[in-house]
Each structure stands twice: as C-alpha cells, then as structure tokens.
Fold this sequence. Notes:
The chain has 156 residues and is mostly helical. It has 7 helices and no strands.
Amino acid sequence: MGPPYFFELILLKPIIMPKKIAYLNLLINKEYMRQIILVGVGSFLGGIARYISTLVINQKLNTDFPYATLSINIFGCLLIGIVYGIFEKSIITCDWKLFLATGICGGFTTFSAFSNESLDLLKQGNTLGMLTYIGVSILFGLIATYLGYWVVKSSC
C-alpha cells in the first residue's frame, strides 16, 4: 500500500461512507485550514527558536545535563501563561492564541525531549540527576506558567 493509495483511501473513504463525511468537511473547511496553517507556521517558528536556543545554551554550558531543554520548557511555560493571560483580558483573538500557544509554544517546548533526556540520565546511572531534572522541570514549569498568567492578569 503505497502513499497514493493511502491518500486515496483517506480522502475517498468519507465520500463512500456517509457516516464519516465529517472527515471531508475537515479537509475542505476554509476555517479549519486557516487554523491549521496558523498552528503550522507557529510550530515552524517555535521549532526553529528551540533549535537555535538549544545550540546557544549547549555551546555556553558544555555539560551532559539537559539545561537547554529545561530552560526552554520553563521559558515556554512562562510564555504560555502570558498568552493565556492576555487572551483572557481580550487583548488577543482566538487566532492569536492558537498561533502563539498551540503553534509557537507547542513548537518551542518539547515533552518528548524532556522524556528522552530523563531516560538518558537514568541510562547513565544518574538517578538523582534524572529525579532532579523531572522535579525541577515540573515545579518550575508550573511556577513559570502561573507567573506569566498572574503578571498579565494583575496588570492594568
């Protein structure tokens, strides 16, 4: 089953099976496509920012501990807190929230890298480092998200 057959099956199945017509509507609905593009562009930009940030942080610190992912995830938590705070104040639209939170913050932060680096620390026999990394990531991530949200909500 090569790619052309796969895509034919995905695109034609909703036409053949009326119960699943929603799949086709999702593909051709201009509003969904616009939102998908917003998320995609945001993710693209967030991913590039993460890659560049990782290069810079790793070059400066030169260590086995995953400080780059840790700092990127905490900063991303701060950013998403700010985005949701300004959204609730009606400063930005749903589209901007989608672009910034789902797109840029989603592309910038990465749970998969966090999980993999935690496993790497464990495989290196650094159980304390792994537990510290997990604890600090979760604790400071939550604090940063709340701080970003609180700063925006308490201003003005």
